[in-house]
Model the fold of this input.
Amino acid sequence: MRPALFRTRITELLGIRHPILAGGMGPRVSDARYVAAVVNAGGMGFIVAAGFPDPDEFRSELRRCRELTAGRPFGVNLYLSRQAGGVERLRRQIGVLIDEGVACVETAGANPEPVLPLLREAGVKVLHKVPAVRYARTAVKLGVDAVIIVGNDCGGHPGIHGIGSIVQAAHATQVIDVPIVIGGGIGTGRQLAAVLAMGADAVVMGTRMLVTEELWIHPAAKDLVVQGDGTESVIVKKALRDHHRVYRNESAEAALALDDAKVTDFEQYRPHVMGSLTHEAFVTGDMRTGMLDYGPAAVFADAVEPAEVIFDRLIDDASAAAERLAALRPVSECDPRGS
Ligand SMILES: Cc1cc2nc3c(=O)[nH]c(=O)nc-3n(C[C@H](O)[C@H](O)[C@H](O)COP(=O)(O)O)c2cc1C
Done:
């Protein structure tokens, strides 16, 4: 493992070696083994609570992760649903994660206000993930510990505004004073260095990590990501204003056709977007159906490798980028090196 090269507000807040987060991947993609691999490689990972609706199963997944990380801190992803009963279900899950000493949560999906007091009172760090700076500003006012801002390139839910990561990063650092994590299309150390240079504190990755050796998904699924150059990524469900960036397969094509026809009745999308199809695809490796979160950062996922190797490559690349930048500075006349 590479030594700590960058100390930021996020490495300090989370007590991690590298400013690299692996975002939660649902429904059960980021499990204890994967999250532990990310944590042991010096980053922060998140088990997706929604993948474990049974509290006992959730608890035992958290315990498995704690064992595998030998007590190092790890995180949980909490999806904030606006559906009836959503907050109640979350409160039960939060009770379990507090019990089990989880260090931090990545909240996403909606305003974290209903669950924030519970988490903060228990000392759980809250990193709220949003697809635009304007939502991050609201979250800061509510008192989150950090914000994660993902741009239009992100696998999963890029929001409706279509703003790219490089604009989000430059804008966020102008107007937000809590630690900032930037995601969407990230898969190299050059991008990590650029994000840090812009004043942010870490990156978050999803798609790039689909080829992690410790991830349980079928080897054929990883192979597809390795072969991909990112052009297979497409945004569907735009007509529903529930933009979803996924792998362009038969289900995505069907959803795109509905979008083109401006269909706003969810029932017509349902057969193509059911969560069970997604899980099935990752289990069997048959990626023809299901909504498979997938962004253009697939182009950087060029080999199946352990999390630690992926992180080492990122850190080496970031270090080279920082040196390139330093070498670009003209030698001034009063600089002793220039004399
Ligand atoms: C397969 C997959 C599943 C994901 N599932 C979730 C999820 O359940 N909850 C969530 O907040 N984000 C989810 N994400 C988004 C990631 O946590 C992360 O924000 C995003 O992937 C970053 O953009 P990138 O894919 O360009 O790296 C998922 C991403 C992928 C690739």
User: Anything to note?
Assistant: The two ends are 39 Å apart (CA to CA). Residues 23-26, 29, 48, 77, 79, 108, 129, 150, 153-156, 183-186, 204-208, 210, 293-295, 297 surround flavin mononucleotide (CB under 6 Å). The chain has 13 helices and ten strands. The mean pLDDT is 95.
